[in-house]
Amino acid sequence: MNKLVRIGSLVVVLLLVFAAPAMAQDGEGETGRAAIEFSSAFGAGLIVIGASYGISRIATAALEAMARQPSIAGNAQLAMIIAAALIEGFTFAALFVGL
Known about the structure:
Layout: H1 2-23, H2 30-68, H3 73-98
Helix pairs in contact: 1-2, 2-3
């Protein structure tokens, strides 16, 4: 997990380093526009990866809970669907802001 946190923080730092000069461009050159488009596409990819990881963790926890106590399967499934819907809502909002 520690290695994953390091890689994630490195990716975020690199994204910020590349996005700042791209936003400072005056708009006359095509290079600045390409860097902005790359940064937004890269950020959208990170958003989708994070959302899919979060939903998979929710599904894993719900299925483990259902396997341990089959009597709470309905409640666990309902909570899982609500949490996944909230994550999807935040994902769409972040994608709209990023793009």
